[in-house]
Amino acid sequence: MEAGYPRYLLYGLLILGSWLVSCTLHFQFVHIYLLSSEARSGPALVVLRPSVPITLGATFPPDPSAIGADEDGRPSSVVSSSASCEGRYVYMLDVPSRFDVLSGCVEGAPAFQDEYSMCSLLVNAGMGPVLPPATGDGSDGDTGVIPNTGWYNTYQYALEVIVHNRMRRYECLTDDPAAATAVYVPYYPALELQEHICDLNYTVRSGPSSEFLRWLSSRPQWAAFGGRDHFMVAAKTSWMFRKDATGTCGNDFLEHLESGNMTVLTYESNIWEPRNREFAVPYPSYFHPKSAGEVAAWQDRARAAERPWLFAFTGARRANGTLVIRDRIMDSCASSSRCRLVDCSHGIQGSKTCQSPRTVVSAFAASRFCLQPRGDSFMRRSSVDAIMAGCIPVFFHEGSTFQKQYRWHHPDPDGSDRRYSVLIDADEILEGKVDIEEVLVSYTDEEVAAMREEVIKMIPRFLYEDPRARFQGDMKDAFDISFDAVMGRMRRIKNGEDLG
């Protein structure tokens, strides 16, 4: 060689150069493939994150057979395009296990054998135990109206768990809080309070939720908007979370600055506070369908039900006559041959009677009107049960009406309740100026039929679908309506609007 280099050195340089070219080409190929793969599969931040309380997810898992899958075997609920998720991304907080009130709900735990424990009440993703088939002899209170599928013995305070399980399957969850429109807080303040709701020690009642709020406000996700982009469910009425140390039951969860910044969904809101950030959503009833076909079939069933009773009431008196309107209503019902009374006043047996879905729904499905006086607060779960049964609700206070409380779920936010309900002034009843039966009998058959049809049309807006299933059909339930409204609020907050 002219330069005097050994021949093997030249061979070595040729081999090294060939290896470098090969590596460069390989890197470019892999980079191009990954980019094209990402484009095919959608944005990387659309993920399905596991349930935050690990024990909850292990105890109440979604039904895999009910969740559809695409051709790649992924759950179809998480296959989404960036366009369909634009402005709808949600970040789900990871809540420490010490705040998991259902941590003891593991398979085989003794609590599952106790019908009054939270574990046994919240099985099936919060819907509760499956309603057993009707006995057929009427001993369970069922007149044959309730189907044997899609119905559960749902605990009235179970909405926190039901919503959490729906959010677990939400198609636009993201692991990037900066990309999220909203932050979902999967904490259960109502279930936490229920364990010691009337404890004599106020610190026992308020301490755990106060500790949680301190933890929440210390998270980096909180800092950006001071929690105003956070939302959660508190499955009791507003008043139960606004008690100071002088109150006998409840705590001050909603009185804290932190909870006041969030959007909180409760069963009853303070409608007299104009800058309220809590919103009332319907109690969960007993019907949790998996398809629009099931809903339509039930609507037909409610429409065709024979209704021999003019009106019905399900409930109990209050001790020492502390709620006079309920006493007057029960007296009126008991003395009328046109009223179906389900009296829950007689101890444990009476309580069990009113906790029987078949008894309650059958009584309402056999009646034209269902009386809904206030109980411990203005809203009653019974009013939602009446809607499920196609029974026209009769309210006795404006604060109990759907137009005032369930504004998102009211069929016409700017319209009147008169199309599907009756409002009788409680004071006029107590003063003897008005008789309930005389008011109700004054409605013609045609008017009753028209009002009942409006009630039956409202059924989808007041029910909660089976949170384990991929719902079949085009229908928005109570969760969808609430969630759309929450996300609308969050987008306006992110745009700088000062929302009350």
UniProtKB/TrEMBL annotation:
GO terms for cellular component: Golgi membrane. The chain crosses the membrane at residues 9-34. Keywords: Glycosyltransferase, Golgi apparatus, Membrane, Signal-anchor, Transferase, Transmembrane, Transmembrane helix. The keyword rRNA processing does not apply. It is found in: Golgi apparatus membrane. It is a single-pass type II membrane protein. Residues 85-436 form the Exostosin GT47 domain. The keyword Membrane applies. GO terms for molecular function: glycosyltransferase activity. Its main location: Golgi. Belongs to the glycosyltransferase 47 family. This is Exostosin GT47 domain-containing protein.
